[in-house]
Specification:
It contains eight helices and two strands; from the N terminus they run αββααααααα. The protein is mainly alpha-helical.
Length: about 150
Amino acid sequence: MRTPPSLFTAAHDRLAASGVRTPRLLYADATHTHLPADAAVVEDMTGGSLEDALARDPREAPRLMDRMAELLATLHSHTGPRFGKVAVVDQGGSSHGVSCEQRVTDGALRCLAEAARREPRAAAAPRVWTRCACVCTACRCTSAWSRAR
C-alpha cells in the first residue's frame, strides 16, 4: 500500500507542475523517522523579496508587477474540484470552510477581534467595525463574528 503524500509534498508537487518557479524539494519525510514531526528541506532561493526589489529600483516596478500578474494568472488557471488542501481534496476529502475568501475573512476578523480585546481604542472605532461588516456581506461571510455584530 502506497503512503499518501503529506500536505506539504502534495502542495509542492502541484505548484511545481503548474509551471511556476518553485523551490526544489531536496528532502521530505512524513514518517517521523528522524524527527518527531514531518520534515522538509527545500532549495534556498536567493534574490530577496519583491518588496526589496521595488525599494532597490522603483523604475522596475512595472516589469516586476507584470511578472507577478503573469504568475498569479498561471496559478489562477489551475483549479481543483473544490476548495481545500491539495492532498485532502485529491483523496476525496474537503477542508474546513467553503472558500478561500471565507477563510481569509474569518482570519482577518479574528485578528481584529483580538486587537479590539487588547486595545480599547480599536474596539471603539465604529468605522473599522462597519467596514468589516461590509466585507463580510460582500464575501457572503458566515463567521460567528459577522452574525454577532
